[in-house]
Amino acid sequence: MSAKKVDLSVEFCGKKFLNPFMLSSSPVSNSAEMVGRSFDAGWGGVAYKTLVTDRVPIVHPSPRMHGYDYGDKKLVGLQNVEQTTDRGLKPNLLDIAYLKKHWPRHRVMASIMGFSNQEWADLAKAVTDAGADMIELNFSCPHMTVEGSGCKVGQEHDLVEKFTTTAHKVTDLPLIAKLTPNVTDMTIPAMAAKRGGAVGITAINTVKGLSEVGLDDWVPRPNVFGKGAISGYSGPAIKPIGLRFIADLAAHPELKLPLSGIGGIETWVDALEYLLVGASTVQVTTGIIHYGYRIVEDMIEGLSDYMAQKGVSRVQDLVGKAIPHLHETGQFDIKRQGIARYDMDRCVGCGQCYIVCRDAGGFALEWDEKKRRPRQVEEKCLSCMICGFVCPVQGMISFKEMPKAFKRRETITLGRARS
Ligand SMILES: Cc1cc2nc3c(=O)[nH]c(=O)nc-3n(C[C@H](O)[C@H](O)[C@H](O)COP(=O)(O)O)c2cc1C
Q: What is the model's pLDDT at position 415?
């Protein structure tokens, strides 16, 4: 199958999307001018920056973001203290109407956050009248300065149900609850949202974190005039957490709602992983903050090529494909065992595997200093596979299953250090 023949369009909560790639609600989706440019770049939809009523003026702390780098990699994580939109409600509603007029085939999901029951109703009605395709209910910002809002609502499932019901009474648009990862079990608020009338779930918003502390001034970052705060953390560092919550929701036997996945997506591979664990659409913020709207070109091309190679013609057919392979750890077949397998022809003699096997593994490697090569004692290998992860040569160390008769030898001998 050719990559040109695959169909990237997808249905999410009863609406057709040109492709599964969306901007998530944040500074990347803050105005019609920005969102329009992103649509032209290839994004299929937007969760527009969260709207509030004009009753409580929003002023962002300054500065409001801090990038967390790791080694050579910039922005592995992003810490932010940004609030909902600080633009007025009216210009934002006009922007939503403008987007629907000029890009009718693209999906505009209005994100809203009320600070009272009445405000949830007023906002849901206002964005419906403005022509939005669907509404995302923001129950998840972890650092709102307005008391009793954001993730404090998402952590109280009664409030999630109550505010979803309120919005449901005033609009026919699909309601999607955006939930917080700052809970143990997201399926509880998700079920509450469903009871209130939500037809989809978005996850995740940012994870509460503290990414860095200034060594000179001792202030957690971002340093807002001498004060830091535990606040929202996003970017590649949170992808495993986002995937986990989407998988939890997809595997829940009663929830059965379409899902929009977010958290650390930068590439088509990240996006595909979210689809495979059950998301129908995916949303991006930090990846765009880092590289710009243009990353969607690679996402479209990469996913199309992958689908063509796999012979999958519709994105929909990939959704949730990993879920049947997801189990409790107690269900693993521990009778089957294996060891690390070394392709010595490719070894560069760095010794990383030897060090890690001694200091964190099973003493299964001896070191030949003359040849600068490890020598494996198979029966001592614990199959932790950590040697493969520290090895700089991709694929030199792989996993192989051993026959049933294979027996491990005890590696940790009492008194060894003293002998
Ligand atoms: C600076 C910033 C502002 C954000 N503002 C909002 C917001 O107004 N509403 C919302 O629902 N999520 C907001 N988010 C959360 C993102 O939409 C997204 O859920 C989160 O950043 C994780 O995705 P990522 O790893 O792709 O950034 C914001 C994130 C950042 C970094």
A: 56
Does residue 157 line the site of ligand 1, with CB under 6 A?
A: no
Is a pLDDT exceeding 80 seen at residue 350? Answer: yes
Give me 50's structure tokens. Answer: 């969260």
Do the strands 15-17 and 10-12 form a parallel or antiparallel pair, or are they unpaired?
Answer: antiparallel
Q: Residues of CATH 3.20.20.70 domain(s) within the chain?
A: 3-325
pTM greater than 0.70: yes
Among candidate residues 60, 180, 160, the one with its CA nearest the CA of residue 120: 160
Q: Given pLDDT bands bounded at 50, 70 and 90, which one contains residue 413?
A: low
Residues 6+ apart with CB under 8 A from 86: 57, 58, 59, 60
Sequence-ordered list of residues with C-beta below 8 angstroms from that of 177, at least 6 positions apart, any chain:
136, 137, 139, 160, 164, 189, 190, 193, 198, 200, 201, 202
What residues does CATH 3.30.70.20 cover in the chain? 332-401
Indicate the fold that domain 332-401 takes in CATH.
Alpha-Beta Plaits (3.30.70)
Among the listed residues 141, 347, 357, 387, the single catalytic one is: 141
83 within ligand 1 shell (Cβ under 6 A): no
205 lines ligand 1 (CB under 6 A): yes
What average pLDDT score do residues 331-355 get?
A: 97
CA separation for the pair 30, 7 (Å, rounded): 29
Ligand 1 geometric centre to CA of 155 (Å): 18
Is 187 a pocket residue for ligand 1 (Cβ < 6 Å)? no
Residue 387 annotated among the catalytic residues of the structure: no
pLDDT digits (tens, 9 = 90+) for 205-249: 999 999 999 999 999 999 999 999 999 999 999 999 999 999 999
Give the Å distance between the CA of 50 and the centre of ligand 1: 10
Q: Residue 419: pLDDT band by 50, 70, 90 thresholds?
A: very low
> Distances in Å between the alpha carbon of 298 and those of 64, 306, 322?
29, 12, 23
Q: Hey, what CATH class is 3-325 in? A: alpha beta
- pLDDT at residue number 5: 86
